[in-house]
Amino acid sequence: MKENKASIGKIISLPKIVDPRGNLSVAEGMKDIPFNVSRVYWTYDVPSGAFRGGHSHKHCREFIIAVSGSFTVTLDDGIHKQSFLLNHPYQGLLVDTDTWRTLDDFSSGAVCLVLAESPFDESDYIRDYNEYLNYKASKGK
């Protein structure tokens, strides 16, 4: 993995309301994260050794939160890679467009929540890494 001087992704801390009955965090579009949320999905019961992601989006930004447990998100811009351990439900990782992402090392009971800027659109996905690299090269990045 190459060292990355500039961060590919950005960890954003969310408001954390501490209460003896249990803490609460909130993510509001255009306030806590820089887009309005159009879609929400979550992954859970990920088998040991399995990974999720393995794709890039052309137009959809995402905000990834470990609401329970932990996992690692590796981001790749075609030149640099950077890994982020997500293990706090009051923090999330902002993933910009044109960024390849892979999620792995899920702890037992981990739940990954994703807030997406756009509704599902298969044509927005690049699911082959070589195709992703060609796409990035064609954009001149």
From TrEMBL:
Coiled-coil region list: none
Residue ranges of domain Sugar 3,4-ketoisomerase QdtA cupin in the record: 10-136
UniProt xrefs under InterPro entries: QdtA_cupin_dom, RmlC-like_jellyroll, RmlC_Cupin_sf
Membrane-crossing segments per the record: none
Protein name per Swiss-Prot or TrEMBL: WxcM-like domain-containing protein
Source species: Prevotella fusca JCM 17724
Top-level taxon: Bacteria
SUPFAM superfamilies per the UniProt record, alphabetical: RmlC-like cupins (SSF51182)
